[in-house]
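Attaching the record inline, Q. Sequence:
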Amino acid sequence: MSLKSVRARLRDIIGIGVAVTGVAAAVITAGAQAADTQELRIGTTDMPPSLGNPFRNTGTPHVFTWSATFDGLTRIDRDGNVQPWLALSWENLGPLRWRIKLRPGVTFSNGAPFTAGAVKTVVDYLRGPDAVREAMAREFAFLAGAEVVDNLTVDLLTREPVPTLPRTLPLLYMVDPETWTRLGPDAFAREPVATGPYRVERMDENGWTLSAFAQSWRAPQIPRMRWIAAPDSATRVQAILADQLDIALALGPDEIAEIEAAGGTGSHWRTAVVWSIQFHQYGRDTPLNDVRVREALNLAVDRQALIDGLLAGSTVPATQPATRGTYGFDPSIPPIPFDRARAKALLTDAGYPDGFKFVVQGVVGSAPSDGAMYQKVAQDLAAVGVTMEIRQFPVAELIRSVMEGNWNGDAFGMTFANEQSVDALRSMQNHSCLWPHPWYCNQAVMPLIAAAKVEFDPERALALRHEVMRFYRNDWSALYLYDMPRFAGLRAGVEGFEEVHGFVSVDRITKKD
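Structure, as predicted:
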């Protein structure tokens, strides 16, 4: 497996953007025109390795880029509700059939009309043997096929009951079927044709140049657009200050403060991602096998101090493997208290009155203030006698460990990533016995997960998800930390920016001198 492909798989698993190296700051400054109101310039960590093939990855930062060109059938709003997009409505006709009504008057950037045939083309590809490389094929493994009813109506057939099918459809990107069939995935990736507000003119690993698709059903406000890859966040900040970027994604609170001090605007929001430290329990002889030890570590961490000190108070402490607004979040689960005395008592009861030592592996630089976060957690654990040794490791090693189950530590930093479906069960595909090489596998919860996945009754489906959340919390499956925030910096005069569950509404952005 190539480094690019394993890096892409990591993003699918952990739901965070991982910066790559080798792109100089000159990428931003080359050809840039300061304060050009006719071009929107967005800086991100890196560009999709699969270019304009939107089926290769499912996570950020690639979803950021694709949201300028591609549309799915639905969107999930900030409150976690399914909203119409290219699909206007959906109806369940039986356990294995959904009828989707499509938006009329939508065209692809080559002028071809968007119809039910495009949906069938995408579903047929994801079901076929040529899609084995595509992360999206794994997301939609439940699809059995698609049947065209009429130009604007299509039935989606599933292999098993999928009550939450509308929640999965933001990632079912539509491509022009004639172009896709004629060119094939690899050539299409260099000449993508879709329904979004911008069409791609030029692309490489350093950035994309796009032009407005004025006939798009969500036509943009700005004629031209550039996505610019700059892995180093300091470079992105300096480009904002020098009027060479309009928006810089994937920043931290200190960098936002620098931009605001210079007259720009900072933006932050919470995601459907829980930041955590995962314990290796399955098949290992470790103190972490004892639920009392896992609870003690959770009680020993002052989450609010961590959030206030390192994340500018931008988020809230985690209580379970889902965030507020995620379908399945259980609001009845109480906050995790900061209680050193109780933590010490639990450690003593478990046979570790003098504490113990364990190793946590972490990729630093993938999330806001994550390096400082590990240090703060280590300090809190030291106060109850537990030594947490922090070992930074590269993204490629994390990928190999996740995929193969070979680890050099007792725990590792990872997320419960429930974007883009914003369903608490999404992260259970990795954080349970469903994963081929699990770090957490408790067979007692598997019947609950299985039942929740196929339950159509809304009240019962939600109740089952709550049971899953309570099980994970009561079993202290991980060191739950906080709902992960994201930060972006905006040049003065830029308005209308919003990112919701990975999708950037570039068509709503305006800018002025």
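Residues 458-474 form the longest helix (17 residues). The radius of gyration is 23 Å.

More tomorrow.
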